[in-house]
């Protein structure tokens, strides 16, 4: 669930390394400078071309999760980004202009917006239109790619599952023209048990159809398998059941959650963090993916491993979050929420205050006595990912459920 999404992001194959240097910062790609003055309601000051709707959605959802009333202009900006079709583009500088064939809408921005709008309440019509669009672009295999019609990937399919659940849908009943459900699509992306990384999820098959374990995709896949969105609480795993099951007709969402969470638990067991999969940064810790892993591990009931990684984040994520911006603070808030940790005292940092400082200026945010719950929160206290997800706009374009920072996945200028 991350800071990702971009019209041309990378699909990184996650390589889990051995040691994470505490306090080391993952290399960040410089953000292109905004060419025009940014909207006053937008979170963050970096160029929103590739992640505007994504970072706005997770920022608003994070504020709602901790009981903070978002600025009306911030909510209004997000709603105003929607196209008539119901889809959202990452950013439309002129929201008053009609979307056309050149407007690059995507499933990730749309699904993130649905999760935020459903949680905030009062925007049912906009959320319903967005869900209808997502259903209209479902692939025959039951999943979704970043761009409509692109090959299905784990991250996109999972963030859409989170949107469906937030909107009160039953993902297993959302069938494609081929009669396949989103869970069946995830099953085809689970690494076979007898292969390296068995039980994890791949982002997509490679050109030869082989599946390679990807930590980012696995965190997203666990949440998708559990029917969760970006915000969730600790769950349970069935004791004694196998942690890995090969895909196919017998593959179940429970298999995906067990296998994927077991892979993540093993990956963070030594140092508490995941490593970056970005070229040139393989020896650096990946703060964003680690935060996503915490949410996934907690949701699957692996609280010990989730707690270890959360402790690592409390010690080492402050500089990363300050550099990365609102989506990073949102990721950390989701991780704190999933583990029952106070986000206002996260390693000595008030994440809620820091997130608010990246939003509309002059807005006196207030803590609501009772935050308006989303449909899933009514049931179990959360809705929760994410992710843009690595792929290029070309041929099947996905992080967050789960970029280590959406900024990381932006194409270089």
UniProtKB/TrEMBL annotation:
Transmembrane residue ranges? 384-403
Keyword tags: Membrane, Signal, Transmembrane, Transmembrane helix
Q: Which domain of life is it from?
A: Bacteria
Q: Where is the signal peptide, in residue numbers?
A: 1-26
InterPro entries in the record: Terpenoid_cyclase/PrenylTrfase (IPR008930)
The name on file for this protein is Terpene cyclase/mutase family protein
Q: What is the lineage of its organism?
A: Bacteria, Bacillati, Actinomycetota, Actinomycetes, Kitasatosporales
